[in-house]
Amino acid sequence: MASRHIGFGKRIIYALQVHRFGILAILGVVLAACGGVQDPPSEKQSGQRMEYRFETQGVVAEAGIMIEFEKTADWDSGAGERGFTATVTILNDSGSDLVDWDLSFDFLHSVGQMWNASYSKTGQRFHIQPEEWNASIQNGQSRSIGFNGAYSGVFQEPGAYVISGMPIGSQDPVTPIPVTCELDATFTTTAQWQNGDGSFGFV
Question: Residue 132: what are its φ and ψ, rounded to 5°?
């Protein structure tokens, strides 16, 4: 059966920070030159940080076995690094049970705590071993593992999945996405004033 691959994780953030008259303005700018804009970006604003994200949930399938990756949380850890929480779900519709399964995949980012499984790592290759209680996946059922991790730059989903020796989806190596766009901007005010309530306005 031919494999199929749906989605590719991509996240590009450009931020311009300007401090003028005691006001911190943060502008998120998405540039079409960075690979083009296919769909309107979702917007997330938290405090004084605005982000524009392009994210899809990666799903690969082969011979009735589907593997889905989902990043469920993302936060600023400081010092240019971000933290995340993610899940990998294995759905077995192959017609037979998966007994004593194991999973491996390429992943460029660091992983800390993992639950429902344990892992070892060789280079960027992660090797996942389930717990005793979830070591079998009956036909028609699914199992999920979760983990926390950290990254900097562009977040990339895992790839080159292999479950119990069977390749699932593309086996192309996962390589870093280069960020080649640069933004130069100048912020200038032409007028400023103090309002009656003590706040400041500007144009």
Answer: -65, -35
What does the block give as tokens for 43?
């917007």
Per-residue pLDDT tens for 53-101? 334 447 888 889 999 999 999 999 998 899 999 999 999 999 999 999 9
Residues in the chain: 203
Q: Residue 74 phi/psi, 5° resolution? A: -155, 135
Return the closest-CA partner of residue 136 out of 162, 98, 103: 98
Q: What is the DSSP string of 145-188?
A: EEEEEEE-SS----EEEEETTEEES--PPP-PPP----------
Can you give the pLDDT at residue 180?
58
**CA distances to 41, 74, 75, 85, 152 from 82, in Å:** 20, 7, 6, 11, 6
Q: Judge residue 60's burial from the number of C-beta atoms within 10 Å of its C-beta, 0-12 exposed, 13-18 middle, 19 or more buried.
A: buried
Six-digit token string for 184:
């130069």
Number of H-type helices and E-type strands within the chain = 0, 19
Run of H or E residues at 112:
strand 110-115
